Amino acid sequence: MDRPELFTLDDASLVIDGRRILDHVDEHLHDGVATAIAGPSGSGKSTLLRLLNRLAEPTSGRVLFRGTDVRDLDVLELRRRAVLVPQRATPLTEDVAAEVRVAAPHLTDADVRSLLTRVALDPDEVLGRTPSSLSGGELQRLCLARALAVGPEVLLLDEPTSALDPRSADAVDAVIRSLVASGLAVVLVSHDVARAGRVADDVRVLHEGRVTARGAAGSLDLEHELMSPPADGHVHDTDDPRAHGTAHLPHGHLDSTRTTDTPEQP
């Protein structure tokens, strides 16, 4: 059975001050997988991500969430079902437990500990600390726990590892893969195609607001697609085995990824 569609972009374009940021995007993003939106800076990646929960609106075309036009959904409900985690991990409180409870104040202490464990943070180590005392990778994972607290159906991650050292980035990637393995859908933006290919099941490559390649991460030469977009606008489209439930990642991938952070240098 095919994976159900999560988001559909139906001829979606966005023009700002005469500049076309997204150009007639027609895409189907599937549930239960990690989809990466990759491309160079300025290609429209983050803008596309923001369309998915109405932080931006298309100038023309539509965005559907589970078959319903997002404009027909209550925007606050949509943003709880599809939570966007911004590129810069920004704490909103001075206490780790309070941070997890920002949008879910009803959470019990056991709930908080469970969410921290889910993002590979040891509750005994981080509870009682201030978020600002955490390393960059720990803080990014705390922001993931804060997002998970509202019970989303999909996480929208904008460059989740761009500000991290490689070891911390690997720890965040491992959490993302574990969340997807548990059934949560993820759509993430990345300019690092090599990392996107390791984390994601499915990839879309953008150039100047247009999708120029799509398919299963293991079936695309991402470095080539990033550096050599088709001049005629033709989309390089490969089969997507993950849309049919077939993982491309080797068994045990998560077990081989360390989840210990190295504090970031000033």
Descriptive notes:
The chain is an alpha/beta fold and 266 residues long. The protein has a single domain (5-244), classed as Rossmann fold (3-Layer(aba) Sandwich). It has helices at residues 45-51, 75-81, 96-100, 109-118, 123-126, 136-148, 166-181, 193-199, 222-227, and strands at residues 5-16, 19-30, 34-38, 60-65, 68-69, 82-85, 154-158, 185-190, 202-207, 210-216, 236-237. The chain has a seven-stranded mixed beta sheet, with helices on both faces. A four-stranded antiparallel beta sheet has the order 2-1-4-5, covered by helices on one side. It is globular, with a radius of gyration of 18 Å. Mean pLDDT is 86; it is low at 239-266.
Q: What is the helix tally?
A: 9
CATH fold annotation: Rossmann fold
Helices and strands: which structural class?
alpha/beta
Task: Count all strands and give the number.
Answer: 11
Largest sheet: 7 strands, mixed
Oligomeric state of the chains present here: single chain
The CATH superfamily bears the name: P-loop containing nucleotide triphosphate hydrolases
- Per CATH, the architecture is 3-Layer(aba) Sandwich
Give the gist of this structure.
The chain has 266 residues and is of the alpha/beta class. The chain contains nine helices and eleven strands. It has a single domain, classed as Rossmann fold (3-Layer(aba) Sandwich).
Secondary structure: elements and pairs:
Layout: E1 5-16, E2 19-30, E3 34-38, H1 45-51, E4 60-65, E5 68-69, H2 75-81, E6 82-85, H3 96-100, H4 109-118, H5 123-126, H6 136-148, E7 154-158, H7 166-181, E8 185-190, H8 193-199, E9 202-207, E10 210-216, H9 222-227, E11 236-237
Parallel strand pairs: 3-8, 3-9, 6-7, 7-8, 10-11
Antiparallel strand pairs: 1-2, 1-4, 4-5, 9-10
Helix pairs in contact: 6-7
